[in-house]
Amino acid sequence: MSAIDVLWLPAEIESDAPRGRATVVIDVIRATTSITTALAAGADRVIPALTVSEAREAATRTEGSLLCGERQGLPPEGFDLGNAPGDFDPATVAGRTLVFTTTNGTAAIERARGEGGEGPLRLGCFRNVRAVARRVAADAAPGGRGLAIVCAGRRGRVSMDDAWCAGHLAGRLVHAVAGVGLTDGARAAQALSAELGPPTAAALARTAAGRALHGIGRADDLSACAALDDLEVVPVWRAGALVKGGEEDV
Amino acid sequence: MSAIDVLWLPAEIESDAPRGRATVVIDVIRATTSITTALAAGADRVIPALTVSEAREAATRTEGSLLCGERQGLPPEGFDLGNAPGDFDPATVAGRTLVFTTTNGTAAIERARGEGGEGPLRLGCFRNVRAVARRVAADAAPGGRGLAIVCAGRRGRVSMDDAWCAGHLAGRLVHAVAGVGLTDGARAAQALSAELGPPTAAALARTAAGRALHGIGRADDLSACAALDDLEVVPVWRAGALVKGGEEDV
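Predict the joint structure of the above. Result:
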């Protein structure tokens, strides 16, 4: 079994991929960037929801929770916060439970929970990619449980920002861990990342997701999405929610 | 609408992609390489079949046809030819109808026929990529019908060889046609191809499909798969079969 796999789309989860691997879900623009930012700002936990109505029900059941997320990029009616990294400042989210629904990111998390089986599920983005690499290095190493990096994509299509970040993570692991094996998907993502170099807001602005953000007047969100290694938090799935994993979560 | 799209997997056809575009299906190792080779060797037409039993039935219905293809890389029992480019020499295939079934390539062709709608469907590989680029340049140009390059992939997973060739085709079109737009999938494939450079048999041997060929003693097939621009034939879908398109097929 190859030790590092990149799934360019959640649809690849349906195939005959091995089970029980560690999983990292990536949706750079913007869900996994926002959730990582929210936990770094002190949010207690993030409960992902597939649909707006599921999110509303979960928020009703969870006292003191904040309802967060987007449809067509903007917060649905009655939501407390959107899906912009800048929405999640400590004054707003510290100590709170966030119920979170987005078009692509939370759907990918749901599907990846099936993929992972018994393996740990984490979220990655450019902001925390160094920290993620540290957490999953043993999984990716020969003899480890294997690592599946799942790109959220955009409405069922390949998304440049996610594949780029997935390849960046794969590349870091290749340099950090001796003897790592890579699937075709991982090698392609790593080559893509090598060609593109480090992320910039300007480069993210040329992706489909970046152009869509520009179209709704949210291009400023791209600076946070392009920030590299400025957060140490790695969201990890535990007891029905994403929480801030410690170094001991491995 | 972006003028050049690359679908990294046939699963992307299920999404909300635009209809009526020109389509090029790519399965470098080995189906589209073999079918291109067969038509270049003088085969009259190639009828793709999804399953081995469909292929047997189609061959029975079609007098003088040859039954070709693979499962687990090797010709099923009773097949006349496999899926190796070298199987299709003029002495064997000239003037014949080939019924063809493979694990990934013919399935991708079937799905792409739905994607294309009214648009023309062609097959590409490294051997004919220059000729393909010439045929689809007008589709990819601003004001054209748009171009969808569909990677066959491997059992539902991204395949390095297909994405590489798709990116190579996209890159040629970007240089040849002014003002071409690209989707994220096309840009990612083009960046991958730029990073990898021209194909070699040694590089194809490191892909998942290449390693599988090695495992069944067919690594020699990779030289034909890595040959660049040595064929002018572009298989095109017409009246239920793939035939050798002329320059007038545009």
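Chain A has one domain: 4-249.
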